Amino acid sequence: MSGMLAGKVAVVTGAGGGIGRGIALAMAAAGAKVVVNDIGASLAGEGTGAGPAQQVADEIIKAGGQAVPNTDSVATRVTANNIIETAVQTFGRIDIVVNNAGNLRDRVFHKMSEEEWTQVIDVHLNGTFYVSRAAANYYREQESGAFVHMTSTSGLIGNFGQANYSAAKLGIAALSKSIALDMARYHVRSNCIAPFAWSRMTSSIPANTDEEKARVTKLQKMEANKIAPMAVYLGSDRASEVTGQIFGVRANEIMLFSQPRPIRSVHMSTGWTPEAIAEIAAPAMKHHFMALERSPDAIDWDPI
User: Could you name the domain of life of the organism this protein comes from (predicted)?
Assistant: First the structure.
């Protein structure tokens, strides 16, 4: 099969539905051989099964592509290694890793349980590390490879009731930058996508107030398969000079996100005291303080 990813082997985690399914299908259509990973669990994490992964793999094969299902969890080192080994043992190599697997355990911070915190960190942040780390040795040996990680504006900007998810997603952005720096010498690239899309996971977002209902209505207009073209591009050789970046994809709109840099500094030649900070430094910087915003506050225009 010809295309931008011809000859490449890709792993897409959480590919049994939604955004991951769209990415897996698009990568196969672009010529990649795909490991379709999905544990087949419910949104609450209950049950497992090969159904979703097998169905997507079957779709790819029916369309003339090559794919294999995998149901290992991203949340442990051993099972994450199994995901990458499925690619290597089946197709002989690994070129692209898309860390898309996710879950939600939304709860206001002061009521969040340790289990709700750990379950989300394990899948999103630890899972991204484990799967990426499993691929890293192969990338280093072959001196090539691409990572595409899913971050979120919940972490980049902020959101209510998602301390676990926000922390994990902002951590993924930092992890991606570190991977990009550490592995640049091996021609390995690492980038993030912050997707705006309606999927099985986002369908659990509360819609009780008028504001929440309006937000969900907007999300429902954003098709999950709109994320796939950016993932295909970032996995391709056409993006050979693109690394350490954070992109947003919302319907037909692509955004490039800024990353934290100093925006103001103040200096005191004799050194600072707490009183001097209160009287001089804080007032001097106050104009530049970031507002306490959520994603819909900062990205307040409608998608086209």
Answer: Bacteria
Collect the ranges in the chain with pLDDT lower than 50: 1, 47
Segments forming the whole domain that contains residue 50: 9-256
Beta carbons within 8 Å of 253's beta carbon, 6+ residues apart: 303, 304
8 Å CB contact between 38 and 71: yes
Among residues 197, 213, 212, 295, which one has the least CA distance to residue 253?
Answer: 197
Whether 27 is in a domain gets the answer: yes
298: in domain: no
pLDDT, position 194: 98
d(CA 214, CA 148): 30
Residue 301 in any domain: the answer is no
Asked whether the beta carbons of 67 and 28 are under 8 A apart, the reply is yes
Query: Residue 222's closest CA among 15, 29, 19?
Result: 19
Let me know if 186 is a catalytic residue.
no
Nearest to 164 by CA among 228, 119, 224: 119
Percent of the residues in the chain that have a pLDDT greater than 70, as a whole number: 89
Domain count within the chain: 1
Q: Global pTM?
A: 0.91
* Residues listed for the chain: 304
pLDDT for res 204 = 53
| DSSP state at residue 160 | T
Give the CATH number, domain containing residue 171: 3.40.50.720
State residue 40's pLDDT score. 87
In sequence order, the 6+-apart residues with CB closer than 8 A to the CB of 214 are none
Catalytic residue, chosen from 138, 165, 186, 233, is 165
Question: Tens of pLDDT along 102-139?
Answer: 999 999 999 999 999 999 999 999 999 999 999 999 99
Helix or strand holding residue 246 (H, E):
strand 246-250
Q: For the chain, give the longest Cα–Cα distance.
A: 73
